[in-house]
Amino acid sequence: MDEANHSVVSEFVFLGLSSSWEIQLLLFLFSSVFYAASLTGNLLIVLTVTSDPHLQSPMYFLLANLSILDLIFCSSTAPKMIYDLLRKCKTISFGGCVTQIFFIHAVGGTEMVLLIAMAFDRYVAICKPLHYLAIMSPRRCILLLVTSWVIGLIHSVTQLAFVVDLPFCGPNELDSFFCDLPQFIKLACIETYTLDFMVTANSGFISVVSFLILIISYIFILVTVQKKSSGNSMSKALSTLSAHVAVVFLFFGPLIFFYTWPFSTSHVDKFLAIFDAVLTPFLNPVIYTFRNKEMKVAMRRLCTQLGIKVS
């Protein structure tokens, strides 16, 4: 009985996207370029915000922390995925797989709450500008950040608590590039329909609810601005919120598909996994910085201080 409760699988094998060397080489180049760009872009945002006195506001504080989350997320999956693209046998240890799952859900849960905090920040800035600094005080910003991390960690630990002691006796092949709960649970040696439903419903429910909260909050902001402000203010609000909405769709789109789509779509899942691992963390800094003149000026100042020539 005791032996039945212990896993005999010590490692898992990723099947990847294709056995074609040409396709794997193309994916390796694509993933490497965008992972390097993600690291560079997000590190540049963090360094710019922390070093520039003109960016010491709640909005940039939250943006820098979003970049930190993107750095952690892409670094928990992309390096292993890129390394495996050059290997014939793509394996990961049981502990390594559980660690990936932990970071994916901890950072993902934290980022969901942080995006809601950023939406609240934009609401206060646009709808209550005279009270902005009082409402979004440094203490409240820290509280929002801590709350985000606590909720993210609780979400991740709760998910893992259901599955970490599952018995695995084979097969050990994961039809993916990295470990995540839906594929992980399917390899257990017991009936996992109920557990699979609970985990999927948990992540799917949180993703959908957070997404709806964000979209409703942005609609509310725009309606409020339209009633109280001029056309110029409406245009400025639209410009500001469009970047936030783009990031929300990029972040939640793959998550909602993973956890709510009822049909098996292996190739689509794999494409979205690559997109989520290396492209979304790259697009976040691009969207925020290219639409923010103050951030671009601050980055130029930082590059000048570092002796880097920019056009």
Q: What features would you describe in this structure?
A:
With 311 residues, this protein is mainly alpha-helical. It is built from ten helices and three strands. The chain has helices at residues 21-51, 58-84, 94-127, 132-135, 138-163, 181-186, 193-228, 231-260, 266-290, 293-305, and strands at residues 11-14, 91-93, 173-174. Strands 2-1-3 form a three-stranded mixed beta sheet. Helix 3 (94-127) runs parallel beside helix 7 (193-228), helix 7 (193-228) runs antiparallel to helix 8 and helix 8 (231-260) packs antiparallel against helix 9. The longest helix is centred in the C-terminal third of the chain and has 36 residues, at 193-228. The radius of gyration is 21 Å and the shape is globular.
Q: What's the order of the H and E elements?
A: EHHEHHHEHHHHH
Mean pLDDT: 81
Lateral strand order in the biggest sheet = 2-1-3
> What gap, in angstroms, lies between the N and C termini?
69 Å
Strand content: under 5%
Extended strand count: 3
Instruction: Indicate the low-confidence ranges by residue numbers.
Output: 1-5
Look at the helices and sheets and give the structural class.
mainly alpha
**Radius of gyration computed on alpha carbons:** 21 Å
Give the topology.
Blueprint: E1 11-14, H1 21-51, H2 58-84, E2 91-93, H3 94-127, H4 132-135, H5 138-163, E3 173-174, H6 181-186, H7 193-228, H8 231-260, H9 266-290, H10 293-305
Parallel strand pairs: 1-3
Antiparallel strand pairs: 1-2
Helix pairs in contact: 1-2, 1-9, 1-10, 2-3, 2-9, 3-5, 3-7, 3-8, 7-8, 8-9
